Give the backbone structure.
Amino acid sequence: MKRPLKLDLTMARYIMAQKAKGRKYFPFVTMLEPLEACNLHCIGCGRVEEYKSVIGRRLTVEQSLEAVHASGAPIVSIAGGEPLLHPQIGEIVKAIIAEKRFIYLCTNGLLLQEKLDLFKPTPYFSFVVHLDGTEKIHDYVTQRKGTYATAIAGLKEAIKRGFRVNTNTTLFHGSDVEDLHKLFALLTELGVEGLMVSPGYAYKDVSDRELFLERQESIEVFRKVLDPTKGFPFYNNPLYLDFLRGERDYPCAAWTTPTYTVLGWRKPCYILADEHVEDVNELFDPKLWERYGPGKDRRCTNCMMHSGFEGASILEALSKPRDLLTLARGERGG
Ligand code: SF4
C-alpha cells in the first residue's frame, strides 16, 4: 500500500485551517504513549528508566481518545514503550481510525506477526517498524539475538497482508553507513512505503566546543547516509532531510508534536520532560518556547530530532513558495 494522497490533503487542509484561525503554535502529530513498558531494553533508549516507577501503568481507550481530542492533530503516532504489549491496542487503534485520523504505530516488530489479526489494512493506518541496522548491528543495539529476524519476518507478513509499512532507523554520528545502506536497500526491495530516519539524541553536559563538534560530526554522517543518488524512499520531508545534511537551518518547533504519556503531557517536548502537565495548551504557550530550542537551553544544542524540526521545516515553507514546491514534490515522491 502506498502513502495515501488523502493524508497529504488532510494535513494541508488542517494546517491552512489553523493558520486561518491565527494560531501560531499548534500540533501536527499527537505522540501517544499508552504505556512505557517494553519487551526490549535497547542501547540509547531512556524511556524504560525514566518511567520505571509507573512502568505497569496503561492508558485506557478513553484516556487515549481524550488526549487525541485535546490535541486535535489529524495524525497520531502511537509509541511507548512497545504499543503491541498494550492489551487494548486493537481497540485504541480502531477508535482513532473511526474518527478518520491517521495512525503510525511504532513497534520493534517482535510481536507483529502474532498481533496482526488485531488490525485491518486501511490507508489510515501504518506500522512503523524500528530497525537500526542489519542483523548483527540491530541485534547488538536491541541487546538480544534474533530480534532482527523476527522484526523482518513480521514486516514481510504485514506487507503481504496489505498493510502500509514504514520503518524508522536511529542514526548516530558513529553509525555504520555501509550497513545502513544495505538495510535500506533490503527494505526498499521488500516493498516498505518509506524509510524514516531519526537522529539519536545524546544529551551530554560537555563544553560548547565538544557539543558543536558532535552536531557537525552528525551532519557528516547524515550526508553520507542520506545520499540522494541512492534513490532510497526516505519518508521524512525533503526540507528536513536537507536540515539533517546541514544544508538548511530551522528553529525548534516541538509544539508540533505534543507527547501524551501515562503521567500526562511531556513539557516541553518528546525528548525533554522537565514536568508532566494535564493541559495540552501549556505546550502552545509562546512564553514556553522562549526558554527551549538551540541557543536557549544547553540540552537542546545537539538536538536535530524530527519531533522538533520537521514541523519547523513545514511551517517555514508556508512563507516560501519554492520550499513549498519542494515539499509537495517530495511528499508525492517526485
Ligand atoms: S531542541 Fe530538541 S530537546 Fe530542545 S525543545 Fe526542541 S525538540 Fe526538545
Remarks:
- Residues 252, 254, 268-269, 271-272, 292-294, 299-300, 303, 305, 307-308 surround iron/sulfur cluster (CB under 6 Å).
- Confidence is low (pLDDT under 50) at residues 205-211.
- The two ends are 17 Å apart (CA to CA).
